[in-house]
Write a structure and sequence with these properties.
- The protein has 28 helices and 17 strands.
- It is α/β, with parallel strands linked by helices.
- The protein has four domains: 196 residues, 3-Layer(aba) Sandwich (Rossmann fold), CATH 3.40.50; 165 residues, P-loop containing nucleotide triphosphate hydrolases (Rossmann fold, 3-Layer(aba) Sandwich), CATH 3.40.50.300; 112 residues, Arc Repressor Mutant, subunit A (Orthogonal Bundle), CATH 1.10.10; 68 residues, Orthogonal Bundle (DNA polymerase, domain 1).
- It has a seven-stranded parallel sheet, with helices on both faces. It has a six-stranded parallel sheet with strand order 8-13-12-9-11-10, with helices on both faces. A two-stranded antiparallel sheet has the order 14-17.
- Helix 13 links the parallel strand 10 and strand 11.
- Helix 1 crosses helix 3, helix 15 packs antiparallel against helix 16 and helix 20 packs across helix 22.
- The structure holds adenosine-5'-diphosphate (ADP) and zinc ion (ZN).
Amino acid sequence: MKSKIHQILKSTFGYDEFRNPQEEIINHVMEGKDALVIMPTGGGKSICYQIPALASEGITIVVSPLIALMNDQVINLQEVGVEAATIHSNVPQGDLQEIERKLGNGETKILYLSPEKINSEVTQRYLSTLNIGLIAIDEAHCVSVWGNDFRPDYTQLAKLRRVFPKSAFIALTATADAATQDDICKQLELREPKRFLNSFERKNITTHAHPAQKRLDKIAHILREHTEDSGIIYCLSRKDTEKVASKLNMMGLNAKHYHAGMDGEDRYRVQRAFQNDEIKIICATVAFGMGIDKPNIRFVIHYSMPKNMEAYYQEIGRAGRDGEESVAHMFASWGDFLMLKRFVDGSEGNQEFKRVQYEKLERMWEFASTTDCRTNGILSYFGEYRAENCGHCDNCINPPLKKDGSINAQKVLSAIYRCNQSIGLELIIDVLRGSYKAEIRNRGLDQIKTFGAGRDIDRFTWKNYIIQLINKGIVGIDYSKGSSLIWTPLSAPVLKGEKKIKLADFVPSEKKTKVKKKQAVSVVVDDSLFGRLKAWRLELAREKSVPPYVIFKNSVLEEISSVKPKNNMELLQINGIGDAKLNQYGEDLLQIVGADL
Ligand code: ADP
Ligand code: ZN
């Protein structure tokens, strides 16, 4: 006899097995205990509160900062036959009565609330007339200043624990380092929360980082390999989103921009079109994506380096939520690093806050320029350490060549010393390459002994070498003096030749491509049947004004076209078809498949 939660998993969501550690989490909160859940995007966090909501007596409240995401979740639940509602500032007053009626008579078991709604006393008074079994705080990292998207609204949530003493609390997030995790538990006053940490590794995302030179050409190249796919290009500024989109359009690639400065209607239109697969490429600031629940994003490109690893990992995490192969490409330059540093300089916040932000930025930069396994860099940042390499990052797929770089390091250190440790990276390269530009002549830098000592090496390579030296701690940066390069305690032994060092030469990662991993279950896709199923889904999605994947994910249609189910029983065996979807679509599906038998 299957347990109740297994039955719901199968009959409502159409899945046979829980993913680790969903079952343990569900049982834990159903015993009325608090939990903190850290799971990568796409890991399956929603089910951890949706199944308790369906399996137990009380109502479950889900707090989320994102209206779009709440709306999507409600549509998704309705598609699988579950009554759910949402109350946020955009919900018309007139709808409230009906929502309250259904909550009152137990028809609706799941209620999504924006933080400002649940913080209001009126709402709290109303909610205390109901039996609230579980309160789920999604995107829980927003409660912490250590996290990446701190939201003042979220700090108010601390009071909830006292307002709802009998309910269990579950806080969920995909991004929280150890400090943020502690802070979430503290801020939300969780009661002896059990922490459920899943590996952060996203095995289906292949991670690349590139120097920023000629980035538009490189991006166009990547996009041409993904003509059928949807993806996001993240930019640091609003202006960049417009610039990049327009340049891509000039290159014949259909891209749209998105940022918080556009009016609400335009933003909504772009977002909807993307969600519905009508626009494939979006150039956006970080404003885009928080509310996107699109499972079939195949690529995420960072036009510039993000401000920290949390932001980076969250953003690339939007790729491949459906578990299918996806790529992340980041372009990073020294200029990006300095600009982000200036943002912190000019930001509000006390010294302690700034210190943390600088450190996070440094770690981001190290990640961008590492020659070691990038996935391990991410994992160790979030406190997960392991020795073996991932096999799905550029440095694993195409390891950089390392050779003795002691002489070149000595040239750099000597140039820094002879320039009185008072000039920045770009000028040091000018000195090494023997440039006679005005600034060099005016400052007399063409007179020093190292001038022109590195003519044989191009600018780009020098930059890479110096960045590696910075990462190794052999060259330092004095931020108080315009980011001048300086010596560190590790410099002298290298200059004196007492310590040898290796430097990597970058080879373009396009040279080798990843060998496609064999999928656990090999699915043979009948193209024509799959094509007809997709066409059917698209038509239906237009009729119902929902995104196609809300009806079925690609993987479901793929499985149908390979298994060719002949009756309802066989349809129910397909991963992702539960009772409600069978009732709604079973007949259509059997008919389409039937024509193929
Ligand atoms: P998260 O909120 O952690 O980013 P979701 O809850 O949206 O992730 O789940 C991601 C995808 O994985 C969804 O399509 C969901 O239906 C699917 N999923 C969740 N749990 C399971 C499971 N046990 N078996 C199969 N698919 C699952
Ligand atoms: Zn790797």
